[in-house]
User: Fold these one by one.
Assistant:
Number 1:
Amino acid sequence: MFSFYFGAGFEGEGEDTPLAVWSVVPIATGRPLPANSRGRVRESGGGVNGNGTRATGKPNAVMSEEQEDGAFYLQQVTITEESEGDYQYEEIPADDDISIPEGDESLENIVKTIEQRNEDLKAAAEENDLVLVQPVCQRGEVIDDFLRNFLIKMGMMKTLDCFQIEWYEMLQKGLLKLQNVGFVPDVYAQNQLLENEVKNLKKDLENCKIATNTAVETLVKLRKERDFHRMHHKRVAQEKNRLINDIKRLKKHYESFEPTLSKIKEKYNTAIKQKMLTSLEKDRALVQVSGLQATLRAIECGWNLPGAMTSGTNSVGCHLKTMKKTGNKGHNECKKDGPSQRALAEARALAEAKEDKHHCDPPDDSTKQLDSEFPVDTRVNPYLAQMKGSPSNLLRSGGCKLTKTLKVHELAVSCLALHPRKQILVTGSDERLWKMWSIPNGDIIMTGEGHGDWLSGCCFHPSGNMLATTSGDKTVKIWDFAKVECAFTFTGHLHAVWGCSWHSCGDFIASCSMDNTIKIWDINSKRCRQTLRGHVDSVNSVEFLPFSNTLLTSAADKTISLWDARTGLCAQTFFGHLHSCNDATFNLKGDTVVSCDSYGILKLWDVRKVAIMLSVDAGPHPGNQVIFHPSGQLVVMASNDGTVKILDLPSGQLYSLSGHEDAVQCVLFDHKGEYVVSGGSDGTIRLWT
C-alpha cells in the first residue's frame, strides 16, 4: 500500500484533468518508502540511536534496512480520472419510515403498516447480531515510554532530560540490552486507569452531592407548600361547612316566613277588594251628589219636582240649617220663601265654596304683579365675537392630551356647570350633592346638600350668584350663594327631572322631566308660568337659545323640538333620529343644532331649512352629552364607552380621547375654548388641552 502526499492538487477544472501527486522513492532501489514505516516513527515517540534504529526492538529492523539502501527523492506521478458523465446512476427512492398509500388511511391499515415496520427492524437487528466482531488487541506500553510519559505528566522536565541523556549514552556504549527491556506490567496500567476512574467518580460524587442538596431544598420547599395548601384546603372546607350551615339556617328561616307571607297576601287581597268596593261606593256617592246638584238647580229655576224629590231636598235643607247665612241680596229675597228654599240656597253656596277650594284658580292680583315679563327677541348675542377664533390648539399634531385628573366624587359625576365669568366649576353626582371647585388647581370651595335623590343637571344663573340643580326626586332647587342656602324649591313634575336651563335675563328657568313635559318657572313669582306638552316620551334635555325666548328640547321619542317660551307652543319639530335623543344644543349663531342619540349617532341640523346637514356614526355606544366649540368648528360628545369624541367639522375627521375608566357622562368647554372638561362614572373630572 502506497502513501501519497498531495502537495500540488489539481492543475485544471475539467473532468478529465490529471491529478498530480508525489511519492517518496529511494534513489538506489527505486521503490517507494512504505507508509507504515513513517507511521511507526511518528507513533512511537521514542529515541533513535546512532545507527537509526528504534530502542523498542523489532519494528526498527525495517527502517534500518531501508536506510542502508541509500538516499530518497520525490517523484511526480500523474493519475488520470475517468469521466463520470457516462455513468448511469440508479434512482434511490426516499426512505420513508412509514408510508401509507393514498385512500388507505384507515386505522386498521395504519396498525398493519406499523407492525410490518417493527418486524423489519427486528429482522435487521438479528442479522447484525450474526456478524462477528473481531476483538481489538491492545499492545502494552514500553517501560521507557512509560517513564517518559510519567515524567512529562508530573512536569519533571529536568529529570526527563537526565533520563534521556543517560538512556542514550547506555545505548551507544552497548551497556543496555534491549532484550531485557520489556513492557510495563498490566497492573500499573490498570492502576492508572483505576486512578483516573476514581477521579472521575469523585467528580461525579461531588455533582451528585450538589444535586442531592438541591433536591433536598426543593423537597423541603414542596413540603412547606403542601402543608400550606393543606391548611388552606382545611380552611376552605371549614368555610364551606359554615356556609352550608348558614344556608340551611336561612332556608329554615325562610320557611318560617311562608305562613306570614300567605297571611299578608290574604290581607293584601282583602284590602284590594275593600278598595274596589270603596271606589264603587265613591262613584255611587258622586252620582248622588251630581243628582242633588241638578235638583238644586231645578228648584232655583222654579221647576216643578215630584214630591219625593222635594221631600229629599227638604231633608237636605234641614241638615244645613246650622250653617251661617250670607247677607247678600239673593238670600234676603229667599226669606220671602219658605225655610226649605233658604236651606237650598245655603247648600248651593256651600257647594260652590267647596268647588272653588278644590280647583286651581288663576293667581290673584298680588301674584300677577310679581310675574316677570319675557324680553323681546331683537337683542344681539354679545358672545358672537368668539366665533372668529380657531380651535387650532386642540387640533395640533397629536390631538388633545390629558393634562389633569381630579377625583371629585365617590360615585358617578352626572353633570357639570361653569361659572359665566370665573374659573369655577360645579359638579353634580349620584351622591345627592353638588360641589364647587376652583379649576384648574382643583381646590374645593363649597358643597351643597338637600336633594333626596341623584342629581341629573345643574346650571349657573347668568349673573353667577345662583345655581339651579335638578334631581331624580322630581324637584328643581335654586341655591343662593349670598345666603349660602337653598332659596326655594320648585315642585310640579310627576317624575324625575333630567335637566334645566336659565333664560339670559335670569328671571326664568326651564326644566325637562321624564313625565314628557317641559316647565318654565318664574323666579320672581316662584310659580310655573308655562307647561309645554307635545313629546310622547321622556324629555331628556332642554336649552334656551342665548338672548332669545326659543327653547330647544330633545326627547326619547326620537325627535327634537323648538318652542316659544312666551306662548308655550311648539314652533318646529325635527325628525331623523332612529333612536332616543339624549342631548341637543345650539351653536352661538343659533342657526345650527347638534344632537346625539342612544346609538352614538351625531346629527347636525339647519334650523332655517329644517334639514339634516351632517350625520356621523360615533357609536355603537350611547352619546350622553354633546357641545359646540365657541368657534363652531368642533363638536365634542361624551360617549358611554369611556372616551370623549371630537368631530372636526371642516375635515369631517373623528377623534377619540381615552382616559376615563368608565362611561363619560358630561363635557364642556371653558369660556375661551382652550381646554375640554369631562366628567365620568368613575367619579373623576379630566382636563384635556
Number 2:
Amino acid sequence: MPSMPSLEQLQRGLEAAGQAHVLRFWPELGAEERAAFLRELGGLDLRGLREHCEGAARAAAAAAGEGSPGAGLDRSPDRDMEPIPPELVGGGEGSGDERSRWEEEGLLQISQGRVGVLLLAGGQGTRLGVSYPKGMYDVGLPSGKSLYQIQAERLRRVQQLAEERTGSRCRVPWYIMTSDFTLAATESFFQQNRYFGLEPANVVMFEQRMLPAVSLQGKLLLQGKGKVAMAPDGNGGLYQALADHQVLEDMKEKGVEFLQVYCVDNILVKMADPVFLGFCVSRGADCGAKVVRKRHPGEPVGVVCRVRGVPRVLEYSELRPETARLRGPEGQLLYGAGNICIHFFTRGFLQELAQKFLGRLDQHVALKKVPFLDDDGNLVTPGEPNGIKMEKFVFDVFPFSSNFVLFEAVREEEFSPLKNADGAAADTPTTARDSLLALHRRWLFAAGAALLDGPGDGPGDGEPPGTGEPPGNPPGTGEPPAAPSHSASSGGHAPAPGGHAPAPVEISPLVSYFGEGLEQLVGGRTLATPLILDEKKAEELRAT
C-alpha cells in the first residue's frame, strides 16, 4: 500500500492545481479531523486535478452557450442519427417460437454458471424523501418487500427454473456497485436480512469512485472545513470500478461469461432474464440493450440509435422536436427505442474495454446545487446550481461494441421506474406499486383464476389496485407496512366500477418469475382478495 503523502506534499500538489484554498481552514481542525482530511486529499489525483477542474468549468460554460464555437460539443448529433437496423433487433410482443428458443438458450447458460447480474446501486433515495439507498425502499406492497428483496427473490427463482429445466444445480453471482454514500448501509441491510436467502459468497459489493465537485469558476468546493464536496462519477463509473476492485477477475474465477447490467429503481426488472440473455448469446453479441417503445415523441427518455454508424444513446434533450416526431412507414416513431438501462455485456468485451478504452469514455456535465462553505466558513445552501459534477454514463461504451443488438421489451411487463416522491406526475412509489400489482392480476387471469374481491371492495376487473402512501416504518424493521389508502387524490388509478379500486393481489417472485406455473396452481379457482400468493399460500393451494 502506498504511503500517505505529507501535508507539505499535498500543499505543493494543490498549489500546482490552483486549489490551495482547500486548506484555508486547516489551522481550525483538530488532530482527528486533520488526519481524516489528509486521507481524503491523499486519495485525489492531484496530477490530474487541474485538468479536472478547468475542464469541468470549460465544459459547463460551453454547455451553457458561453464557450467558444467548436468547444468540442456536438450541438446537433441527431443530424447524423439513424435507427438500429431491423436485423439487429429482437423481442416485441409477437416473437413466439423465437422467444421460446431464446429462453431455452438463456436457461442453459444460467444452468452452466456462465451468467451474472450487475446492479447499479450508487444512488440514495433523496428524491423519495429518504436518506438511505434506494434499493432499501418499500413502495407499500402488501408484503412490505423492498426493491432489494424483490430482486433477490427473482434471482433465486430464475436459478430454480434453470435447475428444473436442465437438472443442473447453478448459481448466478450478483454484483452490486455502490458508492461512498450507499456501501455501508447496503452491506448492513443485506446482512440483517441474511442476504434474502442467497449465498453471501455470490453477492459481491464494490464501490465506484468519487470525484470532487467543482464551482462554476473551476474551484473545488468544501462541504466542511476538512471535507471536499464529492459525488459519484455516474453509473458509467462502473467500468473503472470493475478494474479498481478486480471484479472482472472474480467473474472469470466464477466462470461468468455473460452479464446483465441494470439500475436499482425498476420494480419490474427481470433478473438474469433468460429471454434477453438467450437472444444476445444466440446473436453472438458482445453488447446489447433492452428498450421499450416511447409513449410519445416528447417522453423524456434516451433513445438507442446509431450516430455516424455506431450505436449510441442520445438523451431526449439532444433530439430536436422535429427529429423526435419522425415516423416510420407503419406509423411508429422512427426513434422510439427508449433506453431503460438494462444492458448485456460479455466479460470479454468488458475486459477489452478495461484494457484499451477507459480513457476514451465521454464525460458529461451536470450542474447541481452543492452546499458549500463560504470564505468565512459558513455553510451555504444555494438556491441555484453552483457546482459542476462530471460523470459518465453506463451506455458510453456502446460505440466500442463490434456486434451490438437491441431487444424490445413490453413496457407494462418490464419497466416501471421509481424516481420521485408521491405527488409527482410519474415514476412514484404509487405508480411503481400499481404497475407490479396490476401485472400480478393479469398473470392470475391468464392462468384461469377468478378473483373475488373482499368486503368493501369493488368487483375485480384486472385494473391496478388503489393508491396509498408508502409505509412510514424504516426498512428492515420487520414491521408490517401501513395499509394502503385508496384515495384518488394521491394520484393513482381510477376505482373499479362500483366506486372502489380492486383489492391488491401480490405474487411472490419465489412462486412465479414471469407468470409461469400459475395455471396448475390457480387455474379454475376463485381466489379471495386481498391476496399475497407466497410460498406458504401456494402450498395451501396445492394441498386443496
Number 3:
Amino acid sequence: MSLPTKLHHFCLQFQLPMAAYAALLALARSLQDILDLEQYIDPLHKPKIISLHEKVDFIVTSLEKYSDKHHGKLDCVGNGIRKAAFEAQDFMDSCYYSLSTTTDDDDDGSSSSEANGDEVNLDRGLTMASERIDFIWEETMKMNNSTDTSQDLPSEYYSYPVDRSSTAQNLVVGFDDDLKAIEERLYEDSAKLRIIPIVGMGGMGKTTLARRAYEDSILSQYFDKCAWITVSQEYQRREILSGLLKSLKNEQSADKSEAELAILAYQNLIGRQYLIVVDDIWSTKAWDDLKMIFPDDGNGSRILLTSRILEVAANAGSSDTLVHQMSFLNEDLSWKLLQERVFRQESCPLHLVEVGKKIAKNCGGLPLTIVVVAGLLLSSADVMKEQVWENISENISSREPTIALQCSKILCFSYDRLPLRLKPCFLYFAAFSEDSEIDVSKLIRLWVADGFLKPKDPFKRLEDVGEHYLEDLVKRNLVLAREKGPDGKLKTVGIHDMLREICITKAEEEGFLHQVSTKINKFRTEFIENPYRRFKIHSIKRCDELNIEDLSVRSILFGESGLSLPKLYVRSRHVCILDAPRVLSDNISHLYSTFVNLRYFAFFLDFRHSSHPELPVSISKHPNLETIIVRAMKSEVVFSVLLEIPYEILKMRKLRHLICHNRFRFSTYPFYIGIVHESGLQTIETVIDFVFTEEITRILVNLKKLKVEYDMENRHWKWDHFNLYNLFDLRNLEDLQISMFLPRLFSMTWNHAFPMGLKKLSLDGVPFPWDNMTIIGSLPNLQVLEMINIELTRPFEWRTEEGEFLQLKYFHSSLNHVRKWETEKDHFPCLESLILDYVIWIDKIPSGLEEIDSLQYIELKNCIQSLVDSAEQIQKNQHENGNDGFRVRVIYE
C-alpha cells in the first residue's frame, strides 16, 4: 500500500464538514453579491435575500460551534449540506450572471425588457435556493439537538492562546551530535570539494539539520558564497538554476537559456570557496543534471545534500563519501523535544510527566510527529490540564505496524482537531508545489477571494484576519515559517511534504481541490467524475489546448513555474479565481471577460513586441474584482515600454490590490475623474509618475501600501507637477516605497511631509537632505527605514535628536554624502538591525549604537575596513558581556 493510499485510509476515519463549511461560506458571499446589485433588484426581493443571507450566516456559526465539540460525526450529513449549498450557490450565481450582464446592456442604452425577464429568473432562483437552505437549516437543527457527546473534547482546544507566541522552527533538540558531526565535515582541513549527504525518511529532521548548519556557516563567514536550492520529486532544471542564482544574489538571469543559466551559475562559483545546500533530492538523474555546475578548485568548498533515498545520496559522492544517516529519536530525546516545544525554557509540571512521556513514545521517534503533537497541545487554552494530555494520548496510542503509518495517523488526527475556520485555509496548501516558498501576501489574497475569512470585528481588515489565521497554523506546527520581513512579519511560509500529502488527500476526498496533470496535446476535464470547485493545473507538458468543462469550477490555479499554454477554454461562467501569473497563453488575458463574478485575476502579458500595451477599460466592469496582478515577460524591451491601465479602474468599489510586477502608468489624468466614493484599494504596485491630486488622495484614503517610481531623466518636471505634498493626506498608508531616476546635477531636494501612519518607508534615489531627517524621525509608528542611493549635491553631517525614531527596528542605508554621524542610545531605543551598504566616509559605528539593548545584528556590505573593524569590536564586546546572540556580517562583492 502506497503512502498516499495509507493517508487516504486514515483520513477517512476523520470525516469533517470542512467542504460543507467552505460551500456555505461561498453561498453567503454569493447572496451578498446579489444584494450589492441593489439598484437592479426589485424591492420585493430584497427582504427575502437578506433573510436567506442571515440564515446562512447562522448555519455557518452553528457548524463552527458544533464541529468544535463533535469531530468525526458529520460524514453523511456534511456531504448532504455541501451538495445543497453548492446547488444553492449555483442558483444564486446564475441569477447574478443574468443581472450583471443586464446592467451592462442597460449601460449601453438597451431596453429594460430583458431586466424583467431576469427578475423572473431571480424569483425562481431564490425559490430554489431557499429550498436548499431550508434543508441545510433542518440538518443543522438536528445536529444542534444531538445529545451524543462521546467524542467531546474540552472547548479550549479550538482557540489558540495569543500569549504562546514562540514559533522557533530551527530548534535542533536531539540533533546535537548530528549537528556537530556535520559541522566537523564542513570545516575539516581538506581542500578537495566534499559532498556531505544526509539521509533519512520524511519527517526525521534532515532539512532542519541542514538549515541550522547552513545558517551557522553564513554567520561564521567561513565560506565566500552560500546558497540553498530545493529539488523535490518533480523538478525543472531551469527553475533550480534560476533559484541557485537568486540565492547567490545574481538577478541577471532573465530570459537566458538553460545552458546560459548553467554557465552563469558556474561562473559565480568558480574560484570561490562555497557552500551549497541541495535539499530534498529524489533521483540520481537530478544530481547528474546539476553536478557539472559545481567547480572543484581545491579551496575547501562543500555541498550539503539531503535525500530520503540512500542510493541517491551515495551516488552523489565519491567512493569514500560517508553518508550521514539520520536516526529515530530514543524515548528520552523524544520527551526532551516535546518538553522544549511545549514549555520552552520552563519545566514540565510533575503531574504531566507520565502522560507526556507516553505521548512522546507513541510518536515513534519521528521529530515531525512530535512537533505537530506539541502544536496540538499548545492549541489548548490550558495546557496544564491533565485531561487535555490524556485525550491526546488516547487518540494517538500506537497501534500501527510501522512508523510511517503511525505518523500518518497522528498527522490526520492533528488536522481533525483543527478549528473548522482553519480547515479550508490549511487545505489550500495542496494548491502549492512541493517544497515551494509560499508568498504570504498571495496566500492571504487567495483566502480572501475564496471567502474563507470571517472577521469577528466588522471593522477589521480581512487581510489582518488572514494573518491571524496563518499565525495560528504556524503556532500549531502545521505550517513552517520560512522568511520574515524586517518588520518581523511573515513573508514566506512552507509546509512539510508529509503534511502536504494530507492536504492533497483531504482536498481530493472532499471535492475541495483537484490536481490536473497531463502530457497529452489536448486535455479536457469532462472525464473527471466528481465535481470540484477548485482546479490546480500543473505539469501539463506539451499541452496545446486545455478545456475545463466542469460547470461547477470556481477557482483555477496554475503552478508557479513558467508554462506555455496556447489555448485555455473554460465552460463555467462563474469562475471567481484565475491565478495564471506565469502562463503564456494566446487568450488568457481576454478570457476574464466571460467571468462576471471574478474576484482574483493574476495573468501574464507578453508585450515584448507591443509599443503601446494597455489593459482594456472593460476590466473595470467586473464589480467583484478584488485583486489584479499583472506580470510581464522580462526583457530589455519591457523596461522601455510601460503598461497603461485605465483610470476607470479606480472606480471599482471592491478592488483591493492592483499589482504590476514591472511598471505601469494610468492612461490619463483628467482634471476631474468623477468618482464620488472612496476606493477600497489597499495596494498599488508599481505605478510610475503618479500625480497626487487632492481628488486622488480623497479617493485612495484606504490605501495601505504604495510603490511608486518617478523617471525625471530627460524631462523638465518639478516637484509641483506631481503634487507630492498631498502624500501627507494618505492617513491610512503604512508602507511607502519611492524610487527616483534623476538627471545628473539635479538641484531640488525633498522637503515634503510623509503620512503619519507609516510603518515602513523606503527611499531609493530620492534627494532627501540628511539635515531634514526630523521629518522622518518624527513618524511615530515607523519600524522599517531604507534610504539608499540618496543623490545630493553637497556633504552633510547627521546628528540625530532625542525623541526621534522611537519605534524603528530596522535601518538600511548607504549614508550617501554623510561625512559624520552622531547619535545616542536613546535616539534609536528599539533598533534591532543595522544594514549599511557602500559606506566610505564614516570610519566607525557611532558609540551610542553599541549601547542599544535591542540591537542584535549589524551587516556591512562593501564598506571601508575601519568601519568593519569597529563593528567587529562591538561584536567582541557584546560577546564578552554575555550577549552571544549578537552578530556582525561582512559582505564583499
